[in-house]
Amino acid sequence: MAAARDFNCYNITQLREAAQRRLPLGIWEYLERGTEDEHAMARNRASLDAVTFRPRIARDVSMIDMTSRLLGCESSFPLAVAPTGAAGIMAYNGDLALAKAAARAGVPFTISSASTMDLEQIASAGGQLWFQLYLWADRSLSHAALERAHGAGCQALLVTLDMAKPPNREYLQRNGFGTPFRLNTRNTLDVLAHPRWLVGVMGRYALSGGIPSQANLPDRLRNKVTQSAKPGALFKQDDLDWQMLADLRERWPGKFVLKGVLRADDAERAAAMGADGIVVSNHGGRALDGAIATIDALPDIVAAVKGKLEILFDSGIRRGTDVVRALAIGADGVLSGRAPLYGLARGGEEGVLRALELLREETARTMAMVGARNVGELDSGLLG
Fold first, then answer.
1. Residue 328 placed within a domain
2. Does residue 242 sit within a domain?
């Protein structure tokens, strides 16, 4: 992996702190916070921390092989960059910066259907690409996006299922950073107090064509993030059912993945309907505040479907120890969303690369410390 400037940040927490200093409050809270009282976020962290190791000793760990194959894609270590819809307001052309950094790091990158750049622009970064889908009210728009994603080289489709309704993120409305974005006294003063973001992000957009718009829609339905959505342009998932998923499975020629699975019976149904993988996720604590911690949901799902489809873990990855915890329980790989965004907000493409380097280095170190020489040697026998 190519070296990135370290920004004097030696862990994800320091990248997080640097990102917070650079971003206006409303944008920072959109990136960082959860929903309602944020109990799900707290459970994610507490449950990950509760997973301890029982290392194997006296093993030659001088060579650690972390190479993995995730959904048919080669990866330098068992991690892919999760889809994130607001990258374009964290940094100028943030989606492209994320994709470029992932390609340099040798890990898959997931393009979000909620991005502010056309998926073909993002795909120009190369590397291993996946596409994440929210469904629009007009299903033909979603079907057209699938065709474009496949044509752009995306090898896997991740259908997000844990957002049947827009979540209750009260702080966004208070800060004026809901949809659409509205200026008020509080956020105007806060934006002016962050000149590096104002000039480096919004200023660059102003010079190159204006405020970002919702991408991956026909021109007639596109609107700027400061404008209300046009009829037909809103995501609508409250009527999504297994029959619709079967239809998407038929339409998509690549790997088909259901994201947001927390129950073993749903995982079994995913395997039975022909899914290639699932993402065990509670949306990083950003959807249902009463949701079980993702790491607590993982063991039952592994017991039910391990070997029938690929299992990816998402929600709360902040250290390489978290990666190893998930794999030791039985996940085949992990997704990371917030950590790369911290790097993006701090330093663009180089900041993302730094975040991925940190996670990769910590994963290798943890594997050596527990006595695992390759990903295949990570199993439940290493857990305390």
1. yes
2. yes
Residues 6+ apart with CB under 8 A from 221: 141, 214, 230, 232, 233
User: What whole-number distance in Å separates Cα of residue 74 and Cα of residue 77?
Assistant: 9
CA count, 13 A, side-chain hemisphere, 194: 24
Is the separation of the CB atoms in 228 and 234 below 8 Å?
A: no
Please identify which of the residues 143, 150, 194, 283 carries the catalytic annotation.
283
Quick check: 279 and 29 in contact, CB under 8 A?
A: no
Number of domains observed in the structure of the chain: 1
Give me the amino acid identity at 158: L
Residue 43's contacts (CB-CB under 8 Å, 6 or more residues apart) are 285, 291, 292, 293, 296
Average pLDDT of adjacent 10-residue blocks, the chain of 384 residues: 67 97 94 97 98 98 98 98 94 97 98 94 98 93 95 98 93 76 80 94 90 80 71 86 98 98 98 98 97 98 98 98 98 98 97 98 98 98 98
Please report whether residue 189 resides in a domain: no
DSSP code per residue over 279-322: EE--GGGTS-TTPPPHHHHHHHHHHHHBTTBEEEE-S---SHHH
- Residue 143 among the catalytic residues: no
Question: What pTM value is reported for the model?
Answer: 0.95
CA dihedral defined by 276, 99, 151, 160, rounded to 10 degrees? Answer: 40
Domain boundaries, position 119: 12-22+31-169+237-382
Residue 81 lies in a domain: yes
Which amino acid is it at 374?
Answer: N
